[in-house]
Amino acid sequence: MAFFWQSAAPGSLDAEIRAVSEDHGSECRVLLSGRITIDSSPGLRALLLRRLGTPGCEILTADLGDVAYVDTSGIAILVEVLKAARNQGKLFHLSRLQDRPRFLLEATRLLPLFEKPAPK
């Protein structure tokens, strides 16, 4: 199945992280690049919660394919967005996790909370 995405212009949240938002129907994607640290986390938090609150956005996916580093403040905002999504009856997933961010989520046993369920 092909998806055609409308892309917004890339935005700089902080010197360490950049984001591009894409929408297709009820799925919203935020493609991230850079590093998620205590300095970049507040801007990323605001962006993800704003995207989650967008009318028509039922599934929010954060694409971390170009994110090489996530610290514990980044993990905290991802958990916060997951909780907000669940409270709103929406879904929040992470995709294309790289080695270090994946390891941190695995070590904290949080990774399964962010994975998409297998198709039935």
Q: What would you say this structure looks like, in words?
A:
This protein has 120 residues and is an alpha/beta fold. The protein has one domain (11-111): STAS domain (Transcription Regulator spoIIAA), CATH 3.30.750.24. 34% of the residues lie in helices and 34% in strands. The chain has helices at residues 41-52, 72-87, 99-107, 111-114; strands at residues 6-7, 11-14, 17-24, 27-36, 59-70, 91-95. Strands 1, 2, 3, 4, 5 and 6 form a 6-stranded mixed beta sheet that branches. β5 (59-70), α2 (72-87) and β6 form a beta-alpha-beta unit. α1 (41-52) runs parallel beside α2. The longest helix is centred in the middle third of the chain and has 16 residues, at 72-87. The chain is globular. The relative contact order is 0.15.
- Number of H/I helices: 4
The Rg value, from CA coordinates, equals: 13 Å
> How would you describe the oligomerization state of the chains in this entry?
single chain
**Helical residue percent band:** 25-40%
SSE run:
EEEEHEHEHH
N-end to C-end Cα span: 16 Å
Number of strands: 6
| Strand percent estimate | 25-35%
What's the number of structural domains?
A: 1
Shape: globular
Set out the fold topology.
Blueprint: E1 6-7, E2 11-14, E3 17-24, E4 27-36, H1 41-52, E5 59-70, H2 72-87, E6 91-95, H3 99-107, H4 111-114
Parallel strand pairs: 4-5, 5-6
Antiparallel strand pairs: 1-3, 2-3, 3-4
Main attributes of the structure:
120 residues; alpha/beta; Transcription Regulator spoIIAA; six-stranded mixed β-sheet; 4 helices; 34% strand; globular; disordered N terminus
